[in-house]
Each structure stands twice: as structure tokens, then as C-alpha cells.
Amino acid sequence: AEQHSLLLNSARLFPLPHGMIFSYGTAGFRADGSKLLSTVFRAGVLAALRSLRTGSTVGLMITASHNPIGDNGIKIADPDGGMMTQDWEPSAEALANAPDPQSFVELVFSFAKEEGISLGGERSAEILLGRDTRPTGEALLQAAKQGIEAIVGSVALDMGVVTTPQLHWMVRRKNMGVRTSENDYFMQLSESFRCLMNLCPKGIETNGSIDSRLIVDGANGVGGDKLEQLKKLLLGLNIQVRNSSKHGQGILNEGVGADYVQKGRVSPCCFGPKDIGLRCASFDGDADRLVYFRISEANSNSIDLVDGDKILSLFALFMKEQLQILNKSDSQGLNDVLISRVGVVQTAYANGASTDYLKKLGLEVAVTPTGVKYLHKKAAEYDIGFYFEANGHGTILFSEDFLIKLQGKSNDLAFSNAGSESHKAALRLLAVSKLINQAVGDALSGLLLVEAVLQYMGWSLQNWIELYDDLPSRQLKVKVADRSAVITTNAETQVLQPYGLQEAIDFETGKYHRGRCFVRPSGTEDIIRVYAEASSQEAADSLARSVSHHVD
Ligand code: NG1
Ligand code: ZN
């Protein structure tokens, strides 16, 4: 009874705004930040239930990533640091849309019963809260806290302003029973980075083609500020941060950030002719996306983009090489070959040239619908699973089982063959598993891995760009009255509804050499996205344009 009235009284403080329907999309709930108080309160309640149900700590992150500063959003992280299980999404939506406090409370009780959660019982819930730099973040965080505290015995721990991947990392670590502070995060990243740098082959002084200078666009968000802190712990890199939320006057994600750079193929604000030829990188607003770019020699308004697909390809090449070294040099047969299932996961947005390249490397490539939750789940099926979206969100996952074997092998080698090439390869693989965020894609750890791999290869940005030539592509957004009218299948590559649209797309695509085109409703914005690829830029542009007229 106490629980019932506590929940009801709290819920009354957060009435549902009129005429809004909330859906748990590709990245949780997203909307105008001022409309989200009830949603965030209710998500707080749900997070507490999730923690009770799993008997572990969960996370709740308040961010709208690359979206405009007025937007905000909320997503729940499961105990392993990944996105909340998809089974709970329908309930999340039902709770968010319950018309009044009374029906909300009824739903909570019936859902708890269904899930076997005893409310007001012995068990207590623990939720880590984080938010990005958005002005609505503070008020929303308070609402989330009240939601959590409306479940008897629940505790909310405020991690403050953090990147999305930091929060997910903290949740994961907490449940592993190890230290979770921001400082621990910085230490783990900088130590594993140092380890990789120390294991670079000596003498690759690379005729001066590697420039230690790196300029990073922080999207006027949380990532730039965190990188300023992290870089103090790094040796061998000369990082300059621009558009960091601290000193910049700029607005979050406005004319800056990984999404702006990747979708528009343009340089962010505060980059110009003075930077021609330099290695540049860009984060998105919550620092879970990373792309590289270079201001081009010919025209300082245009850039050479190094997107998530090329980051993925660089990582895959490096890791495959380490596995080969590790397994090859056991010439005396002292050690067993380390068997591993290696796989790569992409979405339909992956550039066709990257997919060809990865297959040529001999890797298995799987395709899933857009959204990290799908990619991550698929990648977790492998011993080493790589996933990246073209927009720069991705990571590398290692299976528990494989890491144990790898550690064992590394110990054996330290005993029998210390300092050998295979020993070094084992140490590199272990360092990567510590550097790269096992919970979600992370711009900070991704950046350090890119830098370490370039150093290892002795590669300049130019060498990396030449790994393969991107097929020209174009992405457009089309505003429509009802985006849910478009229904897709086959990892979003085919339209089922409205009737006739797929025929029109096929007809247009057929006119172009190496043409490929698909459309899908965005999960984060009220739009339909059109993607087109063809053998020339003009052709890709024109294919995207003509298909977008059919969507309209
Ligand atoms: P939507 O709006 O569903 O396309 C976008 C990105 C996703 C993912 C989410 C979450 C594209 C084409 N889509 O989703 O890849 O990153 O945002 O932030 O980049
Ligand atoms: Zn993001």
C-alpha cells in the first residue's frame, strides 16, 4: 500500500503532455527536451524495475546524441552495459504513454507481477544516472531520480555529465565488481593505449609521414571536455581539441559534430584552410560516434571523409594480422593454435566498397537493421565481433571464453617464448580488449585505437584513405506526414509498404551502374531517410533525388 501511494503521488507530479506519443526508437525515447519530464520519470520507474528483475545495477542516460540542442532523450542500459533488452521495449512504450497517473500505476503493478518482481520486497535496485551537456538535462535528471525513488528501496547514483559510453562502461564494470569512477575509465584507456604504443615495431620511423598532430572536433558537447582531461595522460600524441563545450561559444551539434561531417561531407565549424592535409577527427554530441576527415587540398570547403566503415576496416585488418602472427609462429608446435570465430557486422548504410574489402580479407560479414542494439547483439555471437555503422558508431566485442584462452596463451608464451612476435601479438590483442569499450561504441577509445594502429602500421592518413576507394553515395532526409507508413524488410533494404514504392526504387536504381538505393523511416527523427550509391557522385546524387520524389 505504501508503494502504491508513493508511486501514484509521484506520478501526479509529472503529467503526460497533450497529444504526444512516445516510441522507444533506435536509441530510446527522443523528443523536444521540454516535453520529456513524464517520459523520463516513467523511465526512471522502469529502470528500477529492470534493476530489481536482474538483481544488478542498470543505467539511465539522458542524451539526444547528435540531435539539435533543444531535443533530449533517454535510454536504459542493461547490466552488461548494452542497450536494454528488446523484450522490454513494448512495456517501456506502454508505460510512457499511459494516459494518466492512475493507469500508469496499474500498468507498473501488472507488469511487475508478470515479470515476477516483488515490489516493496527485500531486494533493492541501483541505477547509475548520466547526462550530456544539454540545458534540459539537469531537470530531466531530477525527474528520473524521482521515478527511481518512487520504487521503494531503489537508489539512484548520479554520475554527472558523462559521455554515453562512459555511463555504459560504468554500469558494466559495476556489475563485474570492479572500480567504476571516471578516473578508472581514463586510467584503463590511457594504460592500454600506452601498452599498444610500446608494442609498436621499432624503426618504423616512417620517413616522417606520420604526423603526431591530431585535431579533434568535440561537437560543442561532452566529448571534447573529456578528451581534454584524457589527453593529459597520453604520451606520443599531440591532440588539439576544438569545439569543446568548455571554452567554445558554439552550440551543441550546430555546424559541428560527427553526424554533420559524415552526412554532409563538410568540415565542421572552426576548421579551415589552415588545417589542409592534417589528420582531423569529429565526435558527436554524446561522444559515441567517431569519424576522421581531412580538409582537401583542392577545395577547403570539401573534405576527404574517413567514416565508420573505414575505421572498421582498419581495425579488422590490424586484428586479423595479430591473430595470424599469434597462430603462425608456433613453429616448434609448443603451443596450440588459438581458434577464433571472427565476424564483422554492418548495416545497409555501409559503403559497398567497404563490404567488398572486408570480404576480401576473408571475413564473414553480416548485415542487420540500423541501430546499435541489432549490431551489438549480432557481433556478440563471435569470439571477436566487429561492428560499425557508417556514421562512426561501433566497437569490437570479445567473448569471455576467447579472452580466457587468449590470456592463457599469453601466459604460456611469456613462459616459453617471452618477447617473441607471437607473444607481442597476444599482448596487443589483450590490450585492445581493454582499450575498446565492450559496452557500446566509444569515440574516445575508438580514437586511441585508431591512433595506435596507424602508429603500428607506420601509416599516414593518406595510407589509410587508400585502403579502398569509397563508392560515391548520397543520403537525404524527406519530411513526411507519417513516417510509419513506410514498412521495410530484409535488414531494411526492401520496402513492403506503401505498395509500389519498391518497384519505383528498383526502376530508378536500374538506370545506374553499381546503383544501390534504399529508404527507411528514421527511428530518431520524424523523417524518411534515402540512401543511394552509384559509380559517380552525380549518379548517386541523382538516384537519391529521384527516389526521394517517390517517397514524398
Ligand atoms: P535513425 O534516425 O533511426 O536513422 C540514427 C542513425 C543510426 C543510429 C541512431 C542512434 C543513421 C542513418 N542512422 O538512427 O545509425 O546511430 O541514430 O543515434 O546514421
Ligand atoms: Zn551519439
From TrEMBL:
Residues involved in substrate binding: 389-391, 520-524, 529
Pathway terms, separated by semicolons: Nucleotide-sugar biosynthesis; UDP-N-acetyl-alpha-D-glucosamine biosynthesis; N-acetyl-alpha-D-glucosamine 1-phosphate from alpha-D-glucosamine 6-phosphate (route I): step 2/2
Residue ranges annotated for the Phosphoacetylglucosamine mutase AMG1 domain, each copy included: 181-291, 307-459
Annotated Alpha-D-phosphohexomutase C-terminal domain residues: 477-547
Keywords (A to Z) from UniProt: Isomerase, Magnesium, Metal-binding, Phosphoprotein
Active site: 65 (phosphoserine intermediate)
Cofactor(s) required, per the database record: Mg(2+)
Record's keyword annotation contains GTP-binding: no
Cofactor: how and how many bound: Binds 1 Mg(2+) ion per subunit.
GO molecular function, one term: phosphoacetylglucosamine mutase activity
Enzyme Commission code(s) on record: 5.4.2.3
Residue ranges constituting the Alpha-D-phosphohexomutase alpha/beta/alpha domain according to the UniProt record: 55-98, 119-176
Enzyme class at the top of the EC tree: isomerase
Catalytic activity reported: N-acetyl-alpha-D-glucosamine 1-phosphate = N-acetyl-D-glucosamine 6-phosphate
Gene3D superfamilies: Alpha-D-Glucose-1,6-Bisphosphate, subunit A, domain 3, Alpha-D-phosphohexomutase, C-terminal domain
Amino-acid positions noted as binding Mg(2+) in the UniProt annotation, renumbered to this chain: 65, 284, 286, 288
Function in brief: Interconverts GlcNAc-6-P and GlcNAc-1-P.
Family: Belongs to the phosphohexose mutase family.
Protein name stated in the entry: Phosphoacetylglucosamine mutase
Biological source species: Platanthera zijinensis
